[in-house]
Amino acid sequence: MKTHEIPTLLQVLARTFPALIAKHAAQPGAKPVKLLVVDALTELFHSHDKVSSDMLSQRAKSLAEISTLLHALASAHRIAVLVLNEVVDVVDRFSDAPLDESHDLIYSEQARWFSRAENIPGEGRKQASLGLVWANQVNTRIMFSRTERTAYLDDVQERRAKRRRLDDSQKSHSIEAQPTRIRRMSVVFSSVAPLMSMDYIVTDEGIVTLPD
């Protein structure tokens, strides 16, 4: 379902989606709904208006309302909820200011822990959008990013073939060796899983993880 405004999303989460789950469960032999995806929540909060305290207050209120409904749905129907966010450039304007003289620096330090992944050089240049208000609503934050590194598909396929212990006649090779961008997945924080990171690439066959 497309929800272009915040009130529409609230209506869907409060009424439409629970009704859909009930209707689906009533069908003979139907498998239960196990996943709800919101793609992407940030789009509902884009604005060209000048940022004001009233705007920030209303945004925080809306995020809290959305979060309350999502947590209620997850708990009542035992479903997983995946919310896609966006990233923004990191601008540390007060990086040289004393900690006790700038509220902006305090916010920036918190953002480092809850909105950024800094496992490899350059990864910390981006942080999750929607700020700390939203960070306090979620149980797990996972960040996906593209690195400046590349890998050759032939090398990756060779390693996969060896792991499967195939003989030479069964190994698959790409027609032409070509570099592909290495991507990074990092668990920024989680209440149910350990912090970790891994490299992966996207191929025609799907996602392939790379060894450390």
From TrEMBL:
Pfam families: Rad51. GO terms for biological process: double-strand break repair via synthesis-dependent strand annealing; meiosis I cell cycle process; resolution of mitotic recombination intermediates; t-circle formation; telomere maintenance via recombination. InterPro entries: P-loop_NTPase, Rad51_C, RecA_ATP-bd. It comes from the Eukaryota. GO terms for molecular function: ATP binding; ATP-dependent DNA damage sensor activity; four-way junction DNA binding. Residues 1-87 form the RecA family profile domain. GO terms for cellular component: Rad51C-XRCC3 complex; replication fork. This is RecA family profile 1 domain-containing protein.
